[in-house]
Amino acid sequence: MTQLVLDRFLPYRMSITSNLVSDRIARAYEALFGLSIPEWRLIAVIAEVEAITQAEIGERTRMDKVTVSRAAIALVERGLLLRAPNPGDKRSHHLSLTAEGRDLYASVAPKALELEAKIFARFTQKELDGFVAMLRRIDVAALEA
Hints:
Keywords: DNA-binding, Transcription, Transcription regulation. This is Transcriptional regulator HosA. This protein is mainly α and 145 residues long. Helix content is 67%, strand content 8%.
């Protein structure tokens, strides 16, 4: 019988590494901007488009409905997001950044890039490009499994 050794089980290793990176970034976002990781993800996704539904955010980020909903409510309450009716689907709303939300994004984005650079400074660009390509291939494989 083949024994499962958790520390060599790739899904486990990916989860541990992802959690370590996310925790490091979460501490910075919370301390500097008062944002949780889900809140920052919403802001970042919405900054890339004019308006988007919560369901579309869930699809793009792989966050569950409840997490997206809670983050959206918190950001609307802080005046960072606007909710507008979705004429194509009366059950959903379009989310967009307010001027304050765009200003916050403009402050957070450079810090995010700085943290990314610090975390991955030990790797060459070729290694990073290969790593991203492999992650994308893993995404496809996981969706097909």
